[in-house]
Amino acid sequence: MRVVKKPDIRKNEILDAVDELFGQKGFDGTTTNDILDKVGIARGTLYYYFKSKEDLMDALIERYSNQLLDTANKIAADNRIPIMERIVRVVLSLNLSGGSSKEIMEHIHKPQNALMHQKIQKVIINGVTPIMADIIQEGIEQGEFNTPYPYECMEMIVTYMNTVFDDDMVEMTTEERVRRIQAFVFNAERMLGTESGSLMEVIQIFGSEE
């Protein structure tokens, strides 16, 4: 007897399988038959939900992006956590980990996937900026920051982080990267009107990614 599942359940079931397969075999190494066998569905069912492997990758990116932004929002809203620590935790929460995340990042950095890479950057700039701006606004009210432009400052900061610290955008030696990070923190502190050295922990975050 054929099992009929609700569309959302079936779609997530397919994405769970693809997430695992991409993580194990890679995007190029995963075939449509692999997906069909893993989920136990007919080809027509797969194509009803997703037109291609690229469509599946797009859906995975959207899923990961939603998860990251949801986590970042929860951290930002937790006012039990000190302002500076919250900023650090939000930045850390934006790192993809688990499942096919490594494969996703490798895939979107391929030249032929420039549009997909642009989609990720757009999600980060448009999604993270308001989250961080809300934290800064709270910090202004508590006297930790002093700027009339909390959103615009965070838009500049997030955009810089998302481009200059993207290996595909700017090639840097380790020494150049360290200097960029130091300059980034130096200028971010001044834009936000906070004490010198108060955001220095950001350096440790980027340093741990080397």
How would you describe this protein?
Helix 4 (53-77) packs antiparallel against helix 5, helix 4 packs parallel to helix 7 and helix 7 (114-141) runs antiparallel to helix 8. The chain has helices at residues 7-25, 32-39, 43-49, 53-77, 83-93, 101-108, 114-141, 150-163, 174-192, 201-207. It contains 10 helices and no strands. It has 2 domains: 1-51, Homeodomain-like (Arc Repressor Mutant, subunit A, Orthogonal Bundle); 53-207, Tetracycline Repressor, domain 2 (Orthogonal Bundle), CATH 1.10.357.10. The chain starts with 6 loop residues before the first helix and ends with a helix. It is elongated. With 210 residues, the chain is an all-alpha fold.
